[in-house]
Design a protein that fits this description.
Elements (H helix, E strand, L loop, with lengths): L1 H16 L11 E8 L2 E8 L18 E2 L3 E9 L3 E3 L2 E3 L2 E8 L5 E7 L16 E8 L1 E18 L2 E18 L2 H13 L4 H13 L4 H14 L5 H13 L3 H18 L2 H13 L4
Length: about 280
């Protein structure tokens, strides 16, 4: 009998441990991805529902700090530096917490520590990178499930909007689109960079394209680099050989080998030695 009970107990434990039933989350996760200008903005948050409760001033009391969602704190990620309420915020991920000052005014805070389940137990003001003081507007309908959206999108900014129950707030932010585009224009108008010439030259050699053009581009690239690295000189020597200028290839391979020795890179020393032997210089 005892043996039979033991078998039943083991069976029950195995059955429970291997349960595969998945049930809906009370506050399901939501992810919002939006490009604003040239900046990618992502918001990840859990979405609680009203379910007949009074939310602000009761479930979330005035004077307290709210995680701006449910479960793990809401996370906002910016791919570029942005400005929130005239405060510069570096590119990266931030937790978004809200201080519910009253029914008509909240402080939305962007917090540099994102690894919290809810509000941090030990709040650190030094981790607040920006605070937006926002007015709370009453909407004429009930927002059953908490919603965060990005609207009023322009090339240079947008608004993060939070809506739940009958409350709505909007947090404006700006993105550096003009600076990014201007820099890109300046770079394009200035012509190709050393890296562009270098990449084009190596590509032409590796794909068997115009050797003369490859040699012109590598020479242009190296003339723009203040102190070429041994790996760059190595490619230059190979391109010279590809273009049929063996003398220049040998001279450059020797320079690359000397620089590689000084840097302690035996791999490049060996590669240059092999090429020099191949070209009859050793």
């Amino acid at each position: 009998m005892k043996r039979l009970l033991l078998v039943f107990a083991v069976f029950a434990m195995t059955f429970t441990g291997n349960a595969q039933i998945e049930t809906p989350a009370p506050s399901p996760m939501g992810t919002l991805e939006q490009k604003v200008g040239l900046t990618d903005v992502t918001i990840e948050y859990s979405r609680p529902s009203v379910k007949g409760r009074k939310i602000f001033g009761d479930l979330e009391p005035f004077g307290g700090v709210w995680r701006t969602g449910a479960n793990k704190n809401t996370i906002v990620t910016f791919s570029d530096d942005v400005t929130i309420a005239d405060q510069d915020v570096k590119a990266g991920a931030y937790a978004m917490f809200t201080k519910l000052n009253s029914a008509t005014q909240w402080d939305v805070m962007f917090y540099s520590d994102t690894e919290n389940w809810g509000v941090p137990e030990n709040w650190d003001d030094s981790k607040v990178v920006a605070t937006a003081k926002v007015d709370v507007m009453e909407v004429p309908f009930n927002v059953e499930t908490m919603t965060i959206d990005i609207n009023s999108i322009t090339a240079n900014g947008a608004n993060i909007e939070i809506m739940w129950e009958k409350s709505y707030v909007s947090i404006p932010f700006t993105v550096p689109t003009d600076k990014m585009v201007t820099n890109a224009i300046d770079k394009a108008m200035a012509g190709p960079s050393a890296g562009d010439y270098y990449a084009a030259a190596v590509y032409y050699m590796n794909t068997g394209k115009d050797a003369k053009q490859s040699k012109m581009w590598i020479d242009k690239a190296m003339s723009m680099i203040e102190k070429p690295g041994f790996w760059q000189m190595r490619q230059q020597s190979l391109i010279y050989a590809y273009a049929g200028d063996k003398k220049a290839a040998i001279d450059m391979a020797k320079k690359s080998m000397a620089a590689a020795k000084a840097a302690g890179n035996q791999n490049y020393v060996n590669q240059n030695m092999d090429s020099l032997k191949e070209w009859g210089a050793m």
